[in-house]
Design goal:
By secondary structure, the protein is an alpha+beta fold. It contains 21 helices and 27 strands. The longest helix is centred in the first third of the chain and has 20 residues. The protein starts with a helix and ends in a 6-residue tail after the last strand.
Length: 676
């Protein structure tokens, strides 16, 4: 106030000698002015302030330049609402660092730029969790509009957004987070069968400009391009996928290969280096396609329990934060327990931890039993997204490679060698098969049908493609009718049965009523009992479901894919002499409980795609069938001739037990427990 009074007297000399009254307002916390003061100031003599050497300043002090000046105090941190909000948000993180994790690097979190593919249920939840951890740079990519069903489970949208009718999710979400450095882009993601040239350059620019990529879209094929770009530009990629009551969260392996990238060897644990960890597509042996084609509305939507998305989003962000705090970042190794090895209590629980705990490769959780498992898988040398051939083609050819892939997914299969896998699987020795069948025809014309069928397993293998002059099967009803016709007499042409299965093309409208799923295991659903001489079943495989290693009780097994993909692993039949055939459903040479002197020997692994037909009998070996996908279900059509109600199940040490086979449903109707 003294400086202000001196300024007034210097500026207005007429005030000299007069009484000047100053009012000082002082507010209490209750906004009362009881402590306010009034000063009367009288200056009798004039003072020239321009003669600074004679002036004594009150309240000033020497600054860093050695000159007198006022001390400046910035009140922004305590008065600016935006700054107050930021400090309040960061308070939890600071307390975490001060009290619990002193080495927590908050600066690297605030500087990391995150790109979110998808602004739906997962995208909204991930964005909120990123803000809670102090991430300041978030970009969202999405092409959807806010609908009336969205505000309930997507917390960045309101009912007013839905009423507007034209508000896009990406820009609306960015608007809700406008106090942070958040941007939204409305665009479609190019994918096989959906070429969108104008967005391709923008997507690649966004990937290059960010440090972390989150894959949060609905379909499998929409994740392919971001996965490829993330690997090509050496970005951290976090993937989250949802099912009805299960979820998958995983970090993709790094494409950076740094010398010395190795983890510690620990007894009972298998270590996979960060540069060798697989991506979302490494467990698949088929190229991405249009997963929404020929699907009903309920099948196109991701139907999940409400809590699944929030759990998965939380795990995705926590996995990223733990990764950023690890000294090796995305090159951090992952550990998992080795099966088949006995672990002592001293060895268990010694997975190396980072600053915030262990760093798994993936987290697969199930709400049905409230359980999490932490599987880890290595890179697949012929992966359609991150393998060397794919990355090399992209770096050499660029967008021209992408356009070829968008036109046809088969280009990827040819490039990676998956097509060769399928070709080798379908090759058979037709001449040997025909000679063997003619031999049986000449020797046993009058034998009963069951004996004939069992003896045919010694010779028959499979057809590569439908017979040239065989009947054409267009519907499932035609297939069932044709099969009944083939099994009317004692003589059965196995080649014709094989042809009928190959000739039929999958039509979901015809078999959907028989497809009954179970959340815990695959299901066997009876379609036709086949007049007792064969039976026709539909098997439904949930995500990751698989069978045990088993035989087929000297019967023929034809397996045709109706939906999705399956993987078949074959094993040698232990203690089974060549061309030994039993007349009943058990094997006299291998009794229940017998243990071979060696473990099961794997002799092959084959992917089976839609409309492919696989064939096996006990003379060809044992097999195990599984759905390799983490996100998609599979459906297969099985024909067994003759039918059987028990089979043998084998463990790794060749120990054999007898298992009863049952039906989860019959003719589309759930069976009772006492019938199973």
């Amino acid at each position: 106030m003294r400086n202000y009074a001196a300024f007034l007297l210097q500026r207005y000399p007429s005030f000299i000698g007069k009484s000047l009254r100053f009012l000082g307002l002082r507010y209490k916390q209750q906004m009362q002015m009881d402590d306010s003061l009034i000063w009367n100031v009288v200056q009798t003599e004039a003072c020239d302030l321009y003669q600074t050497e004679d002036v004594k300043f009150v309240g000033w002090e020497l600054n860093k330049n050695g000159k007198m000046g006022p001390r400046m105090v910035c009140m922004r941190d305590s008065m600016d609402p935006a700054k107050l909000a930021e400090n309040s948000v960061n308070l939890n993180l600071k307390l975490m660092k001060w009290r619990l994790v002193p080495d927590l690097n908050l600066e690297i979190i605030s500087q990391t730029k995150c790109l979110l593919f998808g602004a739906g249920t997962l995208g909204c939840a991930v964005a909120r969790n990123l803000l809670s951890w102090g991430f300041k740079h978030i970009t969202l990519l999405d092409n959807g509009k806010v609908g009336f069903s969205n505000p309930v489970h997507q917390n960045l949208y309101t009912h007013a957004d839905a009423v507007a009718g034209n508000r896009m999710k990406a820009t609306t979400a960015a608007l809700r987070l406008r106090d942070y450095e958040t941007v939204g882009h409305v665009l479609e993601i190019p994918m096989p069968g959906h070429t969108i040239e104008q967005n391709l350059l923008l997507i690649e620019q966004q990937v290059q400009a960010h440090d972390v990529i989150f894959l949060l879209t609905d379909s499998r094929e929409s994740r392919w391009l971001p996965t490829l770009l993330g690997a090509a530009h050496e970005k951290i990629v976090i993937n989250a996928a949802l099912c009805f009551d299960s979820y998958l969260v995983m970090r993709h392996g790094s494409s950076r290969d740094v010398a010395g990238d190795s983890g510690r060897e620990i007894v009972g644990l298998k270590c996979i280096n960060g540069s060798q960890l697989g991506c979302y597509f490494c467990n698949d042996v088929t190229a991405p396609g249009n997963s929404l084609k020929d699907r009903t509305l309920d099948q196109q939507c991701t139907v999940t329990r409400p809590g699944v998305s929030n759990i998965a989003a939380s795990y995705a962000v926590e996995l990223l934060v733990a990764l950023l705090q690890h000294p090796q970042r995305e090159l951090a190794p992952a550990y998992y327990a080795q099966t088949g090895r006995h672990q002592s209590s001293e060895d268990s629980g010694k997975v190396p931890e980072g600053l915030l705990g262990i760093l798994p490769h993936s987290v697969r959780g199930m709400l049905c039993n409230y359980e999490n498992i932490l599987p880890a898988t290595q890179k697949f040398a012929q992966c359609i997204a991150c393998s060397a051939p794919v990355l090399g083609a992209f770096k050499n050819v660029g967008h021209a490679f992408l356009f070829k892939t968008f036109e046809t997914a088969k280009y990827l299969e040819d490039l990676t060698g998956i097509s060769e896998f399928k070709r080798l699987n379908s090759e058979v020795n037709q001449s040997k098969s025909k000679m063997a069948l003619s031999k049986i025809d000449a020797e046993i014309e009058q034998v009963d049908q069951e004996k004939y069928l069992r003896q045919a397993t010694n010779y028959y293998q499979a057809l590569e493609k439908p017979l040239k002059y065989g009947p054409v099967i267009e519907t499932m009803d035609q297939l069932i009718t044709a099969l009944h016709r083939e099994f009317e007499s004692n003589y059965v042409n196995i080649e014709m049965v094989n042809h009928l299965m190959l000739s039929y093309k999958s039509n979901p409208k015809e078999w959907r009523k028989y497809a009954k799923f179970d959340r815990y295991t695959y299901t066997r659903n009876l379609v036709d009992a086949g007049n007792g001489k064969f039976n026709l079943l539909i098997l439904c495989w949930g995500e990751g479901h698989g069978s045990s290693v088993h035989d087929h009780a000297d019967s023929h097994c034809f397996m045709k894919m109706l939906k999705g993909d399956l993987r078949e692993k074959r094993y040698e039949y232990p203690n089974r002499p060549n061309n030994t055939v039993s007349k009943n459903t058990s094997h006299p040479h291998s009794q229940e409980g017998d243990i071979d002197t060696r473990e099961l020997v794997e002799i092959g692994e084959t992917p089976i795609g839609v409309n492919d037909v696989a064939y096996i009998n006990d003379n060809l070996g044992l097999h195990r069938v599984e759905n390799p996908s983490h996100a998609d279900t599979s459906v297969s059509l099985h024909l067994y001739c003759p039918p059987f109600d028990t089979c043998s199940v084998f463990q790794d040490n060749c120990k054999k037990t007898t298992a009863k086979v049952t039906f989860w449903s019959k003719y589309g109707v759930r069976t009772k427990l006492n019938e199973q």
